[in-house]
Amino acid sequence: MKTLSIILALALLAGGAFANESFRDINGVTLSVLEEGDGPAIIFLHGKDYSKEYMSSLFEHFKARYHVYATVAEHAVRHSRGHGKSTKPESFTLEDNADDLAGLVESYGLKKPVVIGFSMGSYITLKAAEKYPDLFSKIVLIGMRGHGDNYPPERISEAKTPSDRAIIGSLIDFDLMTDIKKVNVPALVITGENDKTNPVAEGRKVADALPNASFHVIPNAEHVAFMKPEGLSQVCSLIDEFLTTKLTYSDHEPLGNMRTKFLNDVFFPAVEREFQGRIKISPHWDAKICVGYQAINAIKAGSADLAVVVPEYDMKALHLHQLFKSFPTGPTGQKQVDFFRRVYAEIPELASELEANNLHAVMIATGYPVGFFSAKPLAQLGDIKGQRWRSASFWHKDFLHNAGAEPVTMPWGVWSL
């Protein structure tokens, strides 16, 4: 399986109350940060004149699915410059806020977090994604536009504090469209149908310009598309779908035998439960994607993320695995599992062989039992040297040949004594 980055979400404590508020000094200002949860990060950015608490309805949704991991402070929700308990400088730009976001990611040591920005928070998110193309894994932009507001001079002068004037000033005449092609991460753009602040046309323009974006309109919703219960449900559903990692599985056998039923009925559901639904596996049976001999090439080409790879089918690519699998006896049960863990830990050549083929072992199976039968007892394996042995399998034929026997091929379906 290809190496994947699995995206989780942030949690909120019961009753809408936040936990673990802290303050981070970043780029010469102090930012108010709330943290909760464990695992890869999602950073939520609020809009102008809003605060981080205002997005609690979104947090409640993620709490329901991820609060069980709320043990290590890995997720961050921030107050932007000039808002809440953060420092309120008298002058700053949208780019300053974007730099603060990048500094926050570095401060917490986060690796490619998801960022969900609302209104002004979406502008900051997009600006940061343009300036730091490799910083995030995915971005969600709610109530978005690609250019600055045209505030009349009297509105700026009516601002009550220098900080309020600074916030408004940071949103005048910004341009997010010139460098938008630099964004190389998947984006989800969401707009309320009745959004008067940033109308549908504004959000669509941004989505159309992004290299990899989807655009959705929430019916009957206004600027805060997640304000009403029906809008909240739709926004959360869209984000859930966007963050879910979808894996395609290929198998050369039909569904119904012992191995394929185990994968379909036991293994795949266990993986999805382990990741709380953040991974969905779509199985394709009976060589619908590729036959067994093409499994590695299908993974390399990206037509499958997961596949059953049989070493015998890929002798050139996995010759060490084939030789290892040919041992006639070995441990069973838990001892077998422990044995294979030791093998991969202590024999680096086997792991290197997988890496060279862009493979990651998710589950190792020893396959069907193989029996070699003789008309007289064999005290040791070496006794087969020079003897004629019959097999219907070309890889068993190779094993017999390597052991010194004289193998005789018997075609499939032909049984004779």
Structure summarized in a few sentences:
This protein has helices spanning 56-66, 94-108, 120-131, 153-157, 162-170, 200-209, 229-243, 258-274, 295-301, 319-325, 333-346, 348-356, 394-402, and strands at residues 21-26, 29-35, 42-45, 76-78, 114-118, 138-142, 187-192, 213-218, 245-250, 279-284, 306-307, 388-391, 406-409. With 417 residues, the chain is α/β, with parallel strands linked by helices.
Order of helices and strands: EEEHEHEHEHHEHEHEHEHEHHHEHE
Spatial strand arrangement across the major sheet:
1-2-4-3-5-6-7-8
Main pleated sheet? 8 strands, mixed
> How much is the radius of gyration in Å?
29 Å
Can you identify the CATH class of the largest domain? Alpha Beta
Q: In the CATH hierarchy, what is the superfamily of the largest domain? A: Alpha/Beta hydrolase fold, catalytic domain
- Give the end-to-end Cα distance, rounded to a whole number of Å: 43 Å
